[in-house]
Amino acid sequence: MILQLIKVSARSIPRLVAGAIAAAIREGHAAEVQAVGAGAINQAVKSIAIARTYTEPEGFDIICRPAFKKVMIDDAERTALQFIVEALQK
User: Fold this and answer.
1) Quick one: which of 13, 31, 7, 12 has its CA closest to 21?
2) How deeply is 12 buried, as exposed, middle or buried, from its count of CB atoms within 10 A (0-12, 13-18, 19+)?
3) What is the pLDDT at residue 88?
4) Is the dihedral of CA 11, 44, 17, 84 positive or negative?
5) Each residue of 45-76: pLDDT tens digit?
6) How far apart are CA 42 and CA 35, in angstroms?
7) In Å, how far are 6, 25, 30, 80 from 54, measured between CA atoms?
8) What is the DSSP annotation of 4-61?
9) The pLDDT value given to residue 52
10) Are 9 and 38 in contact (CB under 8 A)?
11) Average of per-residue pLDDT values in the chain
């Protein structure tokens, strides 16, 4: 499975991030959505919900597996919330 990395910030526009997630799903890939901080996590969750509305009419339902992940930002280790978004196998 190919993971497409999508980094989300507090200023990300959810419908644009959702489009990137939906494009990955349509191509048969999974999306790794990473967010650090409350604002970024809020935008990421909204994006995933919107992506589902984009893919569901096309016959793709999605699932999301959240996890914590250590990432380096400006030479400092931070904890990100990682969402693996993939098509639901029917």
Assistant:
1) 31
2) buried
3) 87
4) positive
5) 999 999 999 999 988 899 999 999 999 989 99
6) 9
7) 17, 10, 15, 26
8) EEEEE-TT--HHHHHHHHHHHHHTT-EEEEEE-SHHHHHHHHHHHHHHHHHHGGGT--
9) 95
10) no
11) 95
CB of 33 closer than 8 Å to CB of 85: yes
Average pLDDT over residues 2-29: 96
Asked if residue 55 lies in contact with residue 11, where contact means CB atoms within 8 angstroms, the answer is no
Q: Computed over its alpha carbons, how large is the radius of gyration of the chain?
A: 13
Between 8 and 59, name the one with better pLDDT.
Answer: 8
What pLDDT is attached to residue 90?
Answer: 60
62-73 sheet: strands from edge to edge: 3-8, 30-35, 76-87, 62-73
